[in-house]
Amino acid sequence: MRKIKRLPEVSEVMRDRAGKLRSDPTLAERKLWRRLRMRQVGIFFHRQRVVSRYVCDFVSLDGRLVVEVDGSQHYSEVGMRKDAARDTYLLLLGFEVLRFSDREVMNNIDGVLQVIQEHLR
Q: Which CATH superfamily groups domain 26-120?
């Protein structure tokens, strides 16, 4: 698989969408953001950041890592197919993608952070 060397431009529509998502996070996103913000895991993350044609829940540009917090819609057949296509595209851009369920974030935040830190090493 050939990686894309430069990130594609971001549309104004996607920037607006990311802003709306930032202003209305889920409980799990809020909980994880409290722990990721201000380099608490050793590296800077952006919240609801546009990467090309997708809005990613959390992105470390330096670590080339995308962290997604998935609600129930991601576990339907359509949702899993869309996520697979998205993950493949982000991989082509040079990002690794980690996915956690809302429930996992809410019930095991320390375990989630440990997995994130291991991937950043």
A: VSR Endonuclease (3.40.960.10)
Structure pTM?
A: 0.82
pLDDT tens for residues 21-69?
Answer: 777 789 999 999 999 998 888 899 999 999 988 999 999 999 999 999 9
3-state secondary structure of 18: helix
Dihedral of CA 28/68/100/80: which sign? positive
